[in-house]
Write a structure and sequence with these properties.
alpha/beta; about 40% helix; about 10% strand; globular
Length: about 210
Amino acid sequence: MSIDLAAANAELAGKTPQEIIAWAIAHSDKPLVTTNFRPYESVILHMAVQVKPDIQVLWVDSGYNTSATYRFAEKLIKDLNLNIHTFIPQMSAARRNVLMGGIPDVDDPQHDEFTRQVKLEPFQRALSELKPDLWLNAIRKDQTEFRQSLDIVTASKDGIIKVAPLFNWTEADMDAYLAEHNLPNEHDYFDPTKALETRECGLHTQL
């Protein structure tokens, strides 16, 4: 699909997340929403299925999630009747833990390969199989310094249009939406590719 990014961002400035999602889905033949079932993910998922109930939902399950995250995921999949597509790494976490001596620290030379195996490779494999033309994601500009340089609508390196409906929302906005719609949340979450919440895992810097 072809989108004028500057024009799209000008058009969507000041729009609500729901209006941004409606715009995105209207401009897409095969939209996709990604999730990792981290805190507040029920917001984007709930918004997306209100507009398109059967939208493809991609979950790259690293194999290192907490028990609480897996329970949260199962609840949301059932409650929202998600059209979920789960992709997993090609190597089991148990085997990788032996070969890499556990999860490599971020300054360990093995960390980039670890991130590639548990997140980037399964994600790229998913994109090649599901073939979306538009990717809805839940990034917000207040999350990391890098994300402040982005915008609501951007393009991936291979041409997929990326749309961040919640880009200008704050955590307070998210909490209000959860309360208004009686949605669950789960803060017991672990991303093995990050040492800090303000660190990028690579999906939005490399893809």
